[in-house]
Amino acid sequence: NKKCEEKRMPYIIIILVLAALDQITKQLMFNVSDGVQGFSIPIIDKFFHLTYVENHGGVFGLLQGKINLFTIASAVLIIYVIAVEYKNFKNYSKWTKIGVAVIAAGAAGNMIDRILRGYVIDMIDFRGIWAFVFNVADMYVHIGIYIIIIDYLVRKYLKKNRRKNNSAYRK
Q: Which residue among 22, 113, 122, 151 is the active-site one?
């Protein structure tokens, strides 16, 4: 249906633009570091650095060397989510759609790395508070989840208040 496709286009654009931005940040970090693992640029000394890391495992660097396992598992999960979300997408609120698109951009950004590089480039290093190095795509996944949760809570709150206001008018 052409009308449905037109309604989905803004979300497809969000996915493509954010995934491209993720890839640009990774390529810039690769170029600046010359691909040297552990190369680090202090932004806020002993707290926030940009550090080049090649993640050959999964989230938070777990199961290093098992990139093929994560690539296959991620591909299966992405295909499943696309199939489910494609059918349900029209029923979502605008903000939930945006959240889903942002999560999809994050998944796509890291999947591109796994397929083209055989590893995921990480570079965001909050060593002052966090032991793990992550990337922009990882941030997208978190931001998308937060958007969906906040949207859900706001809609639930508004619905509850509408019911309360409607019952107050009846008295």
A: 122
